[in-house]
Amino acid sequence: MNVSPLFFRRPLGCLKTTSLRQAARQQKVFRRTLATAATEQQQPASFSDHNFYRITDKKTKKIRTAFAIYEPLAAPEVTPSTPLKALPLKPPHHDPMPALQAAQIARMDPTGARTALFAKTRGAARVGDVLMVTHRRGGEPFAGVCLSIRRAGIDTAILLRNHMAKVGVEMWYKIYNKNVAGIEIVKRRAKRARRARLTYMRKPKHDMGSVDSIVFAWRKTRKVLTTRGGGGNKGAAQKGAAAKKK
Amino acid sequence: MPQEACMPFIPDWESCGKASRRPSNLSTPAKMIQLKTMLNCIDNSGAAIVECVMVVGQKRHASIGDRIVCVVQKQRSANAEGMASSSAANKVKRGDIRHAVVVRTRQKVTRRDGSCVRFDDNACVLINKAGDPVGSRINGIVGQELRKKKWSKILSMAPMQA
């Protein structure tokens, strides 16, 4: 049985209480710096009030303890001997996230074409436009009405809706995804949509149905323009404000 | 085309004899496939609407490519749209208990590259216990997740995939 007195053995839980008390005390010290500058001397160190484990070394006059006392973590350093000064105000905290996201976007979209396509500018794609997404991995490009644009830095995504084989299909695409080879504007909405998210277009009353005919017509015009232009798809790029960038 | 063909994702609850069992708050099809979910059957096995009675495997909900056990609730009529081959039709009857693979869900399914796919209805394809499809054709779109879950036979039968 453990019958040794508390002087020698302290339960582990005690460490927690000690550290808590220490933290509280340090808070008190800090408050004091703000109010009564340096009138009163600080008590040495931030040990517990209990004396039972505080042993003063007779030669060095330093406090020895029976326990390891760790440096307080990330607490404002207060030296007890020197008079306290008013702590200087820290410079305002800078949010690192915008810089990080800008770096990520610059890496994923070096030309800036994708950013420009979904920027809040006049020529950019908007909700209600018919867009077409081409994959890097091949397969059919997916075309559909853009129901919403979720602007979230590098996570910016678009929601396209189409009908395939009489079943409504919706796809979210991340615009900075490298698998998305290109996003093209097939048809612009005649009038600006007065909603940010056109979820009402899921209802049968407002549903556009399949956009395949629109895409087909657009492809035909593009083909005509490219053949007349004599090589290169300059006309197509102008027509669709294409963002076909690698 | 009949009116019903334009909106295949709204099951005809009243005529399938289960009107009383339909949850009152369910205006749209359920999003995750679980017990009592009604699904469209999009192959030519003869079933039109099936009800999920179990999700095979230790899963809460079935998603695209998951196997379920279902009960045929409504048979497809002999000359239903898209199912011209009457010889192949009606391999299953109402009340039959069959296995099926979910091929479309209303719930969004996220892919590895962050893109999501979501369909307007829940649909499945009947299979036998060995995993071979009961029907010989599929008319309708299926999700690409089937490839990952090794349902290549169903994928090759499907006209489109998204």
UniProtKB/TrEMBL annotation, chain A:
Instruction: Kindly list the GO molecular function terms attached to this UniProt entry.
Output: structural constituent of ribosome
Regions of compositional bias (Low complexity) in chain numbering: 235-246
Q: Which residues form a coiled coil?
A: none
Gene Ontology terms: cellular component: mitochondrial large ribosomal subunit
Its GO biological process annotations read: translation
Give yes or no: UniProt keyword Ribosomal protein. Answer: yes
Keyword field contains Thylakoid: no
| Keywords attached to this entry | Ribonucleoprotein, Ribosomal protein
Q: Where is this region: Disordered?
A: 227-246
Checking Gene3D superfamilies in the record gives: 2.30.30.790
Entry-linked PANTHER family: LARGE RIBOSOMAL SUBUNIT PROTEIN BL19M (PTHR15680:SF9), RIBOSOMAL PROTEIN L19 (PTHR15680)
Q: Which family does it belong to?
A: Belongs to the bacterial ribosomal protein bL19 family.
Q: What is this protein called?
A: Translation protein SH3-like domain-containing protein
UniProtKB/TrEMBL annotation, chain B:
| Domain of life of the native organism | Eukaryota
Show the InterPro entries listed in the entry: Ribosomal_uL14 (IPR000218), Ribosomal_uL14_bac-type (IPR005745), Ribosomal_uL14_CS (IPR019972), Ribosomal_uL14_sf (IPR036853)
Which SMART domains does the UniProt entry name for this protein? Ribosomal_L14
Under Gene Ontology molecular function, one entry of this record is:
structural constituent of ribosome
Name the Gene Ontology biological process terms. Answer: translation
The UniProt keywords, alphabetically, are:
Ribonucleoprotein, Ribosomal protein
Function noted in UniProt: Component of the mitochondrial ribosome (mitoribosome), a dedicated translation machinery responsible for the synthesis of mitochondrial genome-encoded proteins, including at least some of the essential transmembrane subunits of the mitochondrial respiratory chain. The mitoribosomes are attached to the mitochondrial inner membrane and translation products are cotranslationally integrated into the membrane.
The protein's name in its UniProt record: Large ribosomal subunit protein uL14m
Organism of provenance: Diplogelasinospora grovesii
The organism's taxonomy opens as: Eukaryota, Fungi, Dikarya, Ascomycota, Pezizomycotina
